[in-house]
Amino acid sequence: MEAEGISAPLSLSAEFEGSFAYLTVRDRLPTILTKVIDTLHRNKDNFFKEYGKEGVQAEKTAISFLSRLRNELQTDKPVLSLTDNAEDSEAWNEYMRRQQDLMEDGRPVSWFKSPWLYMECYMYRRIQEALYMNPPMDKFDVFKEGKTQSYFESQQAIKTLCTYLQELITNMENMTEIQLRDSFLKLLQISLWGNKCDLSISAGQDNSQKSSPIDSLPDLQRFILVDDSSMVWSTLVAAQGAGSSGKKHARVDIILDNAGFELITDLVLADFLVSAGLAKQIRFHGKSIPWFVSDVTKQDFEWTIMQTMAANHKWMSASGVQWKHFMKEGTWSYHDHIFWTLPHEFCDMAVDAADLYSTLQGSDLILFKGDLNYRKLTGDRKWEHTVPFDQALRGFQPAPLCSLRTLKADVQGSAEDCVHAVFPENQGHGFGL
Ligand SMILES: O=P(O)(O)OC[C@H]1O[C@](O)(CO)[C@@H](O)[C@@H]1O
Ligand SMILES: [Mn+2]
Fold first, then answer.
1. What CA–CA distance (Å, rounded) separates 135 from 300?
2. In whole angstroms, how far apart are CA 58 and each of 55, 89, 365, 406?
3. 29 CA distance to ligand 2 centroid (A)?
4. Of the N and C termini of the chain, which has fewer Cβ atoms inside 10 Å?
5. Bridge partners, residue 430, by sequence
């Protein structure tokens, strides 16, 4: 749907044979679906133990739903309305009608003819429909195994990062502003690179963090296209300005992406922001259902903090204890609005999720993690590479925002990583890579 009066190029789509969208829909999405079916098969005995015959029957029916879905995808069938009467079903079905109105010569909305962004999101929502329709499978997270494995495979990197965080916190009061700034920029890059650990690009293959997240920074520097993070720092510093009641309470919103090591990098960054007095409140935004294989759900968020607390490592445990305290006292909070697991481009948010847009307008800085968020920020359209980032946002600017994304889809086109930052007109800055 077009944001008011701002035109945009075509959406990336699998209709362009040979494109990355085409290869994703033809090859990677069926592979992910097959792995989901295998996961259900492999857990058959557990379902029997936990739910008896009813569990096994539900697993069998869910598998038949998913096999049918895979066939629909592979044979480019018209997409179907959702029939699970979930909280977001009507929003999905309304979006399908909207997409149908956009189709030329009345062709049906289908996997290889419609926007890649819509079809990929739709697949993950249809997986959830197969579970919703077959209780007691409705609470089962088909991606949980991969997400927890990614956490356990990254232990050494997590220990290194938590140790680094505790060293920063111990030395914090002696730090000059330049040292604080440099530490922040280092943690921002670590959070950017944490985005490499994503299970949808790898179609579920292990993609955990093996190397030291700190020592690898110098080598990775050359892959950052144009680093605008210094403006992110300026925004944070400006947000410390005195408010009407004295010290302003800077609020940072982090739109999360993947669980596992990437989530740890985001929690470490958030801990630093609060410990350095750069933010008084951090709002984390995750997914309300399992999504794009490794995206963070509330269960993943809570499990990761508990797991870190319980680690047999002094600084991991100290970090986890601190994070649980931040959650308990409300300095940190977790939110999972359904909009983040709808297919909409973010320029639609002000209309289609006005409550969320209004919430984000209260932020001093919004950090968007990952490739899917970047694709939604820019509408996953065939922009020229010279288009300024804030133009591609087509009016989506609830607050100063920054995209921390390792490039996994065409919508930027270059092979490097991106740190974007953009500021609403009233701050006069509009820039990107
Ligand atoms: O976890 P991230 O960084 O959002 O990556 C997910 C992205 O990776 C891909 O799976 C590969 O391009 C996309 O389909 C999706 O946008
Ligand atoms: Mn992801």
1. 21
2. 5, 21, 44, 38
3. 14
4. N
5. 422
Mutation test residue for ligand 1: of 20, 27, 291, 372, the one with most atoms within 8 Å of CB: 372
- What pLDDT was estimated at residue 245? 57
Dump pLDDT digits (tens) for 380-415: 999 998 898 889 999 999 999 999 998 877 776 433
SS (H, E, C) 70-101: HHHHHCCCECCCCCCCCCCHHHHHHHHHHHHH
pTM confidence score = 0.93
Cα distance between residue 205 and residue 345, in whole Å? 28
CA of 258 to the centre of ligand 2 (A): 5
β-strands 242-243, 246-247: how paired?
antiparallel
What confidence score (pLDDT) does residue 173 get?
Answer: 94
The model's confidence at residue 423, banded by pLDDT at 50, 70 and 90, is: very low
Amino acid at 391: Q
Residue type, position 83, single letter: T
- List % helix, strand, coil for the chain (3-state, nearest 5): 55, 10, 35
CA 210 to chain centre: 21
CA distance 44 to 64: 14
Q: Do 414 and 225 form a contact (C-beta atoms < 8 A)?
A: yes
Cβ–ligand 1 contact at 369 (below 6 Å) = no
Q: Which domains does the chain have, with CATH numbers?
A: 20-139 (1.20.930.60), 150-431 (3.40.50.10880)
Is residue 334 pLDDT above 60, yes or no? yes
199 and 143 Cβ atoms separated by less than 8 Å: yes
Q: Is the CB of 408 under 6 A from ligand 1?
A: yes
80: buried, middle or exposed (CB in 10 Å: 19+, 13-18, 0-12)?
middle
